[in-house]
Amino acid sequence: MQYQDFKDLYELEKSLWWFLGMEMITEEICRQFPEMLRTRSLCDAGCGTGGNITFLRRLIPTLTEATGIDISSDALDFCSTAGVQAKLIEASATSIPLPDESCDLATSFDVLVQLPRDGSDKQCVSELYRILRPGGYVFARVAALRWLRSEHDTALSSQYRYTTNELRTLFEDAGFTVLRTTYANTLLLPVVILHRLILKKLRLTQSGSDVQPLNPLLNRLFTAALKIESRLVRYVSLPVGSSAIVVAQKARTVA
User: Which of 47, 70, 122, 252 is in the most buried spot, having the most CB atoms within 10 Å?
Assistant: First the structure.
């Protein structure tokens, strides 16, 4: 992805229903863990445009130190140009160049799905565990449900789609205590199925990634649906959806 692509993506992140909705859902889930919202240091593994770091700085007023890790120099160049307030490091999420126990919060937004199916996801989660201080939190989001795989995944080079049970096992095996799992993008799942598994295969809709501008009316309707969903996740873990989320914690006393 080139610099101009990151600029276009950054603009989409500020207006497209999926990004707006996922921010609302992320905020509602994070607010269930008040201690997380008092953290001071953050590492975002796979920071992309830096939009999630900027969002988390707004959400967590105590955050004073942020680090963005990305394997793409283009992404980091864009973050720097866009004024993202973070230390930016070019590195893989499977080998994070930070000291042990140096962060209060680690995040990973749709990065695990990009890793090869060779144990790299386990290595990434182990790295997130390593860099967290005892008692630190991790928040991760991934694409969900293998049967939803489509040319959208191919266009984004996504390697895998998880279930919440797989996410739970992945993080527990690394030593984390899993505090919450849920699916997301649940209310619009029928639309996703229709669009990706039927209309795209029939060549009745635009090919490639779904991360594209949308009709303004549909964009408002879809944003409203995810706003409703963000209220639902206050009270229940959603049973199915095109994304999955996990919140986990490193033990306060590590054996």
Answer: 47
For residue 84, give the nearest of 59, 55, 108 by alpha carbon.
55
Rounded distance between C-alpha atoms, residue 157 and residue 171, angstroms:
23
Report d(CA 225, CA 172) in Å as an integer: 32
Residue 109 Cα distances to 25, 27, 43, 202, 214, angstroms: 13, 13, 12, 31, 22
Residue 138: pLDDT band (50, 70, 90) is very high
Please state, in angstroms and rounded to a whole number, the distance separating the CA atoms of residues 34 and 36: 5
The 10s digit of each residue's pLDDT in 184-202 is 999 999 999 999 999 888 8
pTM value surpassing 0.90: yes
Encoded tokens for 89: 């490091």
Other beta carbons less than 10 A from residue 150's beta carbon: 19
Report how far residue 165's alpha carbon sits from residue 171's, in angstroms, rounded to the nearest whole number: 10
Helix residue ranges, H only, 60-119: 73-82
Residue 75 clears pLDDT 80, i.e. is over it: yes
Q: Write the CB contacts of 190 (distance below 8 Å, at least 6 apart in sequence).
A: none
d(CA 70, CA 43): 11
Tell me: pLDDT of 123 over 50: yes
Question: Which band of pLDDT confidence, cut at 50, 70 and 90, is reported for residue 31?
Answer: very high
Tell me the two tokens of residue 216.
Answer: 């303004």
3-state helix, strand, coil in the chain (%, to 5): 40, 20, 35
Give the pLDDT score at 3: 47
Dig out the tokens for 189 from the structure: 């799942």
